[in-house]
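Supplementary notes (optional reading)

For those who missed the lab, this is the record we used. Protein: glucan endo-1,3-beta-D-glucosidase. Length: 448 residues.
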Amino acid sequence: MADLCFFLPIFSSFIFLLLCNGVSSDYLLGINYGTVADNLPPPSQVAAFIRDHTTLNKIKIFDANPEIIRAFADTGVWVTVTVPNGDIWSVSKPTAAQWWVEQNVVPFYPRTRIDRICIGNEVMATGDKNLIAHLVPAMRAIHEALLAAGINDIQVSTPHSLGILSRSEPPSSGLFRRVYDRVIFAPMLEFHRETKSPFMICPYPFFGFNDETLDYALFKPNNGVYDEATGMNYTNMFDAQLDAVYSAMKALGYADVDIVVAETGWPSAGDPNQLGVSLENAISYNVNLVKHVNSGVGTPLMPNRTFETYVFALFNEDLKPSTSERNFGLFRPDFSPVYDVGILRNTQASSPPAMAPEVSKKWCVPTTDASDAALQSNIDFVCSSGIDCQPIKDGGPCYEPNTIRAHASYAMNAYYQANGGKDLDCSFINTGVVTNYDPSYEECRYDA
């Protein structure tokens, strides 16, 4: 996929423009689906939303949550799952790796299109030498476990922060940290070459800019940064960060290994007076990022290449530790867009963000801050009032996902509709809210 846009001009410049500037986002742009929050919708609704309302067809999750993996079955969305950092030592042993694959991949594959397994997340940044020492063995063990299970089309990799570099400026001088370059990265890159899997990195210009380089970080017009060694001028920090990693790989003899951008993004809100944090800047970075990675232009050291890229993140996550970390999401938990980077179906990237709801229809769903105890009370009340709750009973079309929030959502809407759709009947002591977004999913249909 990384070379597709290089060859297309040979056949037709029109097709090149079509795929490399438009439709290709379906194939190259993914989203990180983080869950550090207590107000997110059920995974089944998230899967339906991504499938039906966005052009995304790739997600990456930070664990192997079975409810999420199951929700994406038969959606056509590719899923990257993760072995948590705490499990790396264990899965570096063949028996444990086989058990992990049997528990977290085999029950869902191929109905869920799992295409990659990440072994940990930014492991090198932890500084845990024992964890780091077991990283490459764990990658090999999981790969072998997949083959033993008869699965040969799931890649194995691990995402890295840019802290893996000892030098990054100018980009052509990029080098991995000493000792780790030979002991960790050389064998890791050899594994990637052998298995045709990508080296995954997390470039964040947001964490590297200052007041003089903000426009450079945001893809806005600027004078650029000149690399005297190559004679190349960099007009954005994202390219410079990718090329610094590429230079480090090339120095070890692995320039042929593909690069995937596992995470990148920009927060839309932060603490008062926090430099560079605003809705306008988040839009500038992510909208220009999407255009850039799909343009086929590549970087100065990697021309004519496209990069599979995962934006961070799908939702604002309210349990993250700082204001800016809680506001990297493209969407709020009710699926309303914080802003649109051009991934919503039937909308224009330049149009104001909107879900284009069916204004004639309304549904009742739980508020994002409603507690499980309150929602269970709502279920008990509705189901004892004569409303048919069979759909959320075991075997019913709305039983899965088997969570209090999902069941309450169906029950509260059923009560609301049965009583004429009056706002008062969606109050539920301030735990219900009326929405124009249809919460139906798969075979679970909500009346309206």
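If you only remember one thing from this example: Residues 180-195 form the longest helix (16 residues).
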